[in-house]
Amino acid sequence: MGDIRRRGVVALGVIALTAPLTVALGTTPAQAASSCTTKTGPYQKKVEKFLGRPVDGKQSSADCKAIQAFQNKHRITPNIGYAGPVTWGVMDLMNRQKAVGKNPNKAGKCPTNKGRIACVDLTLQLSWIQDGKKLVYGPVPVRTGRKGYATRTGLKKIYWRHRDHVSSLYDTPMPYSQFFDGGQAFHSVGVSVWNPPGSHGCVNMTTTDAKKYWSLLKTGDDVFVYGRKSGT
């Protein structure tokens, strides 16, 4: 019994030390209003098409306001309405995620012989839950670790869950946390899951998706992380 207690204390100590490092960025106050740029960006036509604007490749006041609204929604900086690589990168990712449809494991990269398992595709920033070959939930967009804090790949297991977890380092809420690798966990986040550059290693989700994962998964369930996020 004493040995079990000691192991429990060590495990909680590891969580206390590592969990704060997984807190997502984006907890700063809302971005201040910025003036619109008149400059045409290198991805002008692609951004115009994504936003349903007239595609002429020339910046207009209406184009700028539409681009700026998108940037503000996802906290992309600078938020001056410029059709640059970061803004287009987010849009392109959204397009690629949408194209996956309801067959996220088409390539068979997430194991189908483990029963219920949560899959995380870092390349497409998508996650889903499957049971064998049956899709149980998802795919849903997620926000994983940024450069220097990449979400670690491989087969893992959920080892600790805390519905109302709070980072002791940043005093930042991490609701519906389900830890699967050191301090890395699934949890909800209060910013857009498309907000660059990413988390400190955790798999960020919307509150709706994090709640669903909480209800569908349990301690001991498998998690498989694969691929590579752009820029990491």
Which secondary structure elements does this structure contain, and how are they paired or packed?
Layout: H1 2-18, H2 44-51, H3 61-73, H4 85-100, E1 116-121, E2 126-131, E3 134-141, E4 154-157, E5 160-166, E6 173-181, E7 184-188, E8 203-205, H5 207-216, E9 222-226
Parallel strand pairs: 1-9, 7-8
Antiparallel strand pairs: 1-2, 2-3, 4-9, 5-6, 6-7
Fill in the keyword field for this structure.
L,D-transpeptidase catalytic domain-like, peptidoglycan synthesis, alpha+beta, LD-transpeptidase, globular, L,D-transpeptidase, 9 strands
Account of the protein in words:
This protein has 232 residues and is an alpha+beta fold. It starts with a helix and ends in a 6-residue tail after the last strand. Strand 1 (116-121) and strand 2 form a beta hairpin. The chain is built from five helices and nine strands; from the N terminus they run ααααββββββββαβ. Residues 1-30 have low confidence and may be disordered. The chain folds into two domains: 44-98, no CATH class; 109-226, L,D-transpeptidase catalytic domain-like, CATH 2.40.440. The chain has a five-stranded mixed β-sheet, covered by helices on one side. A four-stranded mixed β-sheet has the order 5-6-7-8, covered by helices on one side. It has helices at residues 2-18, 44-51, 61-73, 85-100, 207-216; strands spanning 116-121, 126-131, 134-141, 154-157, 160-166, 173-181, 184-188, 203-205, 222-226. The protein is globular, with a radius of gyration of 19 Å. Pathway: Cell wall biogenesis; peptidoglycan biosynthesis. Residues 115-226 form the L,D-TPase catalytic domain. It holds the Pfam family YkuD. Keywords: Cell shape, Cell wall biogenesis/degradation, Peptidoglycan synthesis, Signal, Transferase. The active site is at 187 (proton donor/acceptor), 202 (nucleophile).
